[in-house]
Amino acid sequence: MSDIYLGRTLVIANPAAHSGRGETAALFVTRFFSTYHTAADSCEVRHTEAPGDALAMARQTAGYDTVVALGGDGVVHEVASGLMRIPEAFRPRLAIIPMGTGNDFARTLNMKRSDPEKAIAELLRGSERSIDLGKVNDAYFIQTLSFGLDARIALDTSDRRANNARQQGAGLFVTSGIKLLPSGLNGWPYRVSIDGQNMEGLGIVFAIQNGPTYGGGFKVCPSARPDDGMLDLCCSVSKPSLAHSIVLFEKIHGGRHTKSNKLFLSPFKHLEVEFTEEQPPCQIDGERFEADRYVVDVVPNALRVIVPPGCPW
After folding, report:
1. pLDDT tens-digit readout, 61-100
2. Which fold has domain 144-300?
3. What is the pTM of this model?
C-alpha cells in the first residue's frame, strides 16, 4: 500500500538518458505500473525523440494528476517548463525518476539516482510539496541558471555526454573544468541590480541557483533550497589568479568557497544583469540560453512535486 496515490499518470521518458539506460528504466516503469494497479489509476509512457519533445508533451497534460520526468536534468527542465504553460488549477504535479549523469535536481530532493526501482519506491512512500521555480525573461528553470566560465563548462559536459563520454556526473564536470579554466579567467564585465541594490563586477563565475548544486554535485550555493521563496546568487567580483581559481574550483565542489573575497553570495527575489562587453556563454538547467539582457525572478510555490521520505527540507 503506497503512502501517495499517483492517479492518472503520464511518464515522459528520455530513452537516451545515461547512455541508453533511460530506455531500460522506461521498460521497467511500464512493467511496474502494468502489474501494480494500486499505485495509479492509469499510467502511460511516452518517449522523447528530440530536444523540445518533453516540453511539448508536458504542456498538453491538463487532466493528468501526475507527470513523471524520467531522464536527466534536461528532461526535468523541459517537463517543468511545459507544466508551467498549464493554468494552475489544471496543472498536474511533478515527479521524477532521475536517470541522467548530473541529476542535480534529484540531489536537491535527496532522491535515489539511476535506480528506477528505488526511485519508484521513494515516490510511492513520498509526500507532496510545493516548490519555487526561477524565471529568466520568459523561460523557467528548476535548478540553475549560469553565465561565464561555469556555463561554458556545463555546456561542454552536455556536448561530451551527447558524444558518449565515458565519465559521468562530477567527474565529467571536473575534467571539462580543468580543460576550460585557463581560457575563462579574463571574465565578462557585468552590471547587476539585486533586489534594487546595484553593483558591478567581473563575471568569471555567475550562477543563480534554486537548489544547492549543479555540475553533478558542485555545491555552488550551499544554502539554496527550492521552498524558501528565494533564489541564490554566487558570482565573482574580481579576477583571481590561475592558482587561486584552481583552489576555488576545488572548494566549490564541497561548498567551502563561501568566505572567499573573490565571490559574492546572496539570496534574492529579483535580479537584472547585463554584460557590458562580450556576451558570455549562458546555460539554463544544462541547456543553451541566449539574450541581450537578463531579468530573473523567483516564482514562489510554482509546482507541486512528489518528494521522497528523505527530502531534507
Report:
1. 999 999 999 999 999 999 999 999 999 999 999 999 999 9
2. Tumour Suppressor Smad4 (2.60.200)
3. 0.91
